[in-house]
Amino acid sequence: MLELRHLETLIALAESGSLAAAASRVNLTQSALSHQVKAIESHYECPLFERKSTPLRWTPVGERLVALAYDITRALSDANREVARLLDGRAGQMRIAVECHSCFDWLMPSMDVFRKNWEEVEQDLVSGFHPDPVDLLNENRADVVIVSRKQRRRGIDFHPLFRYRMPAILGKKHSLTKKKHLTARDFTNETLITYPIPDERLDLVRRVLSPAKVFPERRTATLTEAILQLVASGRGVAALPAWAIQPYLDREYVISRPIGKDGLWCELYAASTSAGSATSYLLDFVQTMRDVCFRQLKGIEVLR
Amino acid sequence: MLELRHLETLIALAESGSLAAAASRVNLTQSALSHQVKAIESHYECPLFERKSTPLRWTPVGERLVALAYDITRALSDANREVARLLDGRAGQMRIAVECHSCFDWLMPSMDVFRKNWEEVEQDLVSGFHPDPVDLLNENRADVVIVSRKQRRRGIDFHPLFRYRMPAILGKKHSLTKKKHLTARDFTNETLITYPIPDERLDLVRRVLSPAKVFPERRTATLTEAILQLVASGRGVAALPAWAIQPYLDREYVISRPIGKDGLWCELYAASTSAGSATSYLLDFVQTMRDVCFRQLKGIEVLR
DNA sequence: GATACAACTTGAATCAATTTCAAGATCGAT
DNA sequence: ATCGATCTTGAAATTGATTCAAGTTGTATC
Questions:
Q1: Which residues contact B168 (CB under 8 A, 6 or more apart)?
Q2: What average pLDDT score do residues B249-261 get?
């Protein structure tokens, strides 16, 4: 019989386009997914999709079952939300602070979804910069903060969102484009363009350059587009989330290269007070962000 | 996490009104259901229903989850049907023959449901009496026959529908009402009123009276109502399906008594040719009959 | 055309989780 | 007060899903 886990697999498959990717998304091995798919196929006695094509090409039956999967997960999450409301009332507020500019790309759509589901919860974006945004939680000036690092702080919970690749971004004619991947030393004589935030929150600096004692020239810009423009015109290099610059890479406006042999992987967490973690709409918002991101950002991975 | 099996359990619970009854309906022990319910309740951290009341009294959360269960099973069976149509076309016919008159009670609603789901399949009721209705299948004059006995016939499949109690029916003042249950010998000096069908298809005669060499006076009537009327007016006794006469028992128009210590249990099967069993709409019709019956007939049990 | 690599498949072994079993608790009815 | 029916509970047993490790297939590269 078809089970919920099969439906989750189908969705992961539909959204990630390969067995391997879907497997990591649902925290299983490819093998497990292969078994699952085979089970479904032998239950319906027909194939679900063509294997050798990316993205997957679904058969009509496969398509119908993917649709079913979406229907059912929607019904499930609606019910869970309603139960949550039944159990702990509906009102409340949701003040969101972000540390990272490009996050707005997916934060806005997430907030839209959330607004539909929790009309009574008042939403707000806490703007401006803060030396340590997590303090906003303790000061009760925000309810959720999106941060790139899990800390050990009492009374604060960090809900994992996802991990993503942060490649170096180079102008099309930059000499470093010849290399397959970059190392800290490659940055020595470059101008590094970053957002205007403290070094300890810039993963490239904190995790790669500082440990290697490399301190390139620096320059800042507030908007992702501005950084890209500077890079494209050869006035420096940068490191940006892969998901934030995919369209520019597709158009070959700039070139990306992995930082380090395995690439630089960064993480994103939603921080809240422990009290906040007990309110169901906050947890639902975290889940909504995950859902939206996995649906619309390519190449991100689950984080625990 | 909530699983499909939990939802099936919730539906069985909602429709049967007790853990024990629901358990037999989903082919599990009460214990298993108890564990399941406890698991759901501890997941949502709230009770689903009050235990000591029949029918179960649901909490708002329980109610919402039952609604979810119906939503999801509907989505599932819609999808399964559509997949079936995708795989083996849509046209066909469905000629139904019944051996037992009272079956129309649930056969009509089942046919209504089926008609909605398979518009292209032409429905027909094969009327009239036949010495052996299963022959209608081989002669290709019917596609499904509802029968009370599983036989060993090559090329014919018997799909179990349900089992049910067949109590004896007595007039309100009949002296046998003093007994807790009746035995074959109690029928010796009675007039037995039956449908006008061969003895080997009357479970009471075949399984109870004949083995005990008891041959009471006989009388026949075609309609259930006619039989009831005769019984009520003291002109004989009968044995009828519990589900068929529930309203008359509730109104105390007649009295029922179990036949034998454990009561007489009868069975109902849908017979089809093996070829027929391969068409998806026929199997769907069988499932529809089961669903409709378990939803609307009280006191019936699963049959394998 | 050989080789390597990536993605997927397969069967056996492991491990987790659900079911059953057996005993005990609770409630109503006689 | 006792019986019977219904449900609960914890531990054992069973089921079945996942992992592991090896094999297959297809694609790219030299």
A1: B176, B182, B204, B237, B238, B239, B256, B257, B258, B259
A2: 89
